[in-house]
Amino acid sequence: MAGKRADTADDTIRLRVPFGEEVARSLRAGQHVTLSGTAYAARDAAHKRIVEAVARRERLPVDFRDQLIYYVGPTPARPGEPIGSAGPTTSTRMDDYMEAMLELGIRATMGKGIRSRKVMELQKRYGAVYFQAIGGAGALLARHIKAAEVVAYEDLGAEALRRLELEGFPAIVAVDAHGGDAFAEGQRRYCRL
Amino acid sequence: MVEHDMREIDVREIGDRIREMAVEVSWNLGTAERECLRRLSEEEESPLGRKILSAIVSNFEIAAAERRPLCQDTGLAVVFLEIGQNVRLVGGSLLDAVNAGVRTAYRDALLRMSVLNDPLLRANTKDNTPAIVHIEIVPGDRVRILFGAKGGGCENMSRSAMLNPSDGKRGVVEFVTRAVQEASANPCPPVVVGVGLGGTFEKAAILAKKALFRPLGKPNSQLHLADLERELLDSINRTGVGPMGMGGTRTAMAVHVEAFPCHIASLPVAVNLDCHSHRHMEAEI
Ligand code: SF4
Questions:
Q1: DSSP code of B77?
Q2: Which atom of ligand 1 is the closest one to the Cα of B74?
Q3: How far is CA A123 from its chain centroid?
Q4: Does the CB of A82 have a partner CB in chain B at under 8 Å?
Q5: Residues 186-245 of B with CB under 8 A from A
Q6: Domain containing A140: what range?
Q7: How many helices (H) and strands (E) would you count in chain A?
Q8: Which strand ranges, in their side-by-side order, compose the sheet holding B279-284?
Q9: CA–CA separation, B203 and B57 (whole Å)
């Protein structure tokens, strides 16, 4: 096959997080990226707390503007290590929180699995992007998390809100800010039913 | 055999085996699973799919070398106990012993506590208990223990239906294929597909779960069911879902079907999905 393929290592885009709307809008579904910088870990229970705090007009524990939220609930860290195994959880469960989180300014989310139509539309409107990390690769992905610190909701254990320091964390642009969907495109290409 | 020939087994021994298996499966993927994933990483036609599969292979190698969990979702403990009817259980409550094994394993091996006390109140029990326990009484004087760590992402994509008998085999193939296709990336494909056919509504679901515990890729001993497994695997791989749902020709690692007699009016079918972190072991006492 002629030309450079999107999946060769040289085509990997090295991204610093957090990033702004312009970077988010420049990404296209199917691109490989590595992420380095600061991100936040939150899943079901932390999202519920954040959204409830907003409804009560309380101050939030962090400023979410331009931040990346990684949907992850890690295993406990061993002594002397920043985090345990830390692969993505299913993003679909956070679909209903997406609009509220985008209102708070988040720019990107990362998890595993498909997103709803509504999330795709919201990402177009707000200029946001969704990455898929490799599901079930918790031991491998933990190597790309250099620091982790609970910043709120400690009582939630694995579900607490954490600040993460990522280094070369590998991911794929799964849903971009233009309606591009790497799941639908990839599956269409190989469907033989 | 007369009654006093009962063999005594201490429930604490059962708990200990469960503790050992819970730790072992969390970091050490089985040999058949490793071989299968390596083979799929060569067979997969999609370059992106191959890349994802090779990351999955590196992940289980790292997990085994460093004895750390393969996946952060270390699961809900699912235990099948086949207890010989000539066994007399001593040493306390069987269920307490099972849960003690799970509790100790999850705490000592730093596994994730993923169990809530109630589906609506949703407070974490903080020790990953209770386990889901299925007990069968069988002939003999042994106890066979099947242990599995079941992730939430794949469990959530499971489906069941009461088909029309007239739907037949075609209806079953369509239903199972659609379940895997609609699950898409969420259950972390390539998946292991457990199918329960027949029985009643609840029997089909338990058969589907138990099918996941069969040695990976070992066909059903009944020829028509082994044929169905092959047909299902082919059909599922034609969906194009591929590794992590990003497109490809390898969506399932294996399909295991278990069947049971059923009512003249029924064709129950249940599909229980497990992810590529297919964590299960068995022991016999
Ligand atoms: S579906 Fe399996 S591999 Fe994927 S995150 Fe859940 S437990 Fe891990």
A1: E
A2: 7
A3: 13
A4: no
A5: 186, 188, 235, 238-242, 244-245
A6: 16-187
A7: 6, 7
A8: B132-138, B76-84, B143-150, B279-284
A9: 35
- CATH number of the domain where residue A178 is located: 3.20.130.10
Element (H, E) at B103: helix B94-108
Q: Which atom of ligand 1 is nearest to the CA of B276?
A: 3
Q: Are A67 and A39 in contact (CB under 8 A)?
A: yes
Contact list, A78 vs chain B (CB under 8 Å): 68, 110
Would you say the pTM of this structure is higher than 0.90?
yes
Question: Which residue in A72, A74, A112 is closest to B185 by CB distance?
Answer: A112
**Which one of B33, B53, B71 would you pick to mutate in the ligand 1 pocket, going by the greatest count of ligand atoms within 8 A of its CB?**
B71
Neighbours of B44 (CB within 10 A): 24
Q: Tokens 């027949």 label which residue?
A: B198
DSSP label of A93: G
Testing ligand 1's pocket by substitution, the residue of B53, B111, B154 carrying the most ligand atoms inside 8 A of its CB is B154
- Residue A83 contacts B, CB cutoff 8 Å: no
Task: Report the alpha-carbon distance of residue B70 to residue B59 in Å, rounded.
Answer: 7
Q: Name the residue type at position B193.
A: V
Q: Which residues in chain A (12-41) have CB-CB distances under 8 A to chain B?
A: 30
B42 vs chain A: nearest CA distance in angstroms?
16
**Does any domain span residue A10?**
no
ipTM over 0.90: yes
Tally of domains in chain A: 1
Tokens linked to B94: 């069987």
Q: Residue-wise pLDDT tens for chain A (193 aa)?
A: 333 344 445 689 999 999 999 999 999 999 999 999 999 999 999 999 999 999 999 999 999 999 999 999 999 999 999 999 999 999 999 999 999 999 999 999 999 999 999 999 999 999 999 999 999 999 999 999 999 999 999 999 899 999 999 999 999 999 999 999 999 999 999 999 8
Pick B56's closest partner by Cβ from A73, A136, A183: A136
Contacts of A163 (CB under 8 A, 6+ apart): A38, A39, A40, A41, A62, A147, A148, A149, A151
Residue A54 lies in a domain: yes
**By the 8 A CB rule, do B25 and B282 touch?**
no
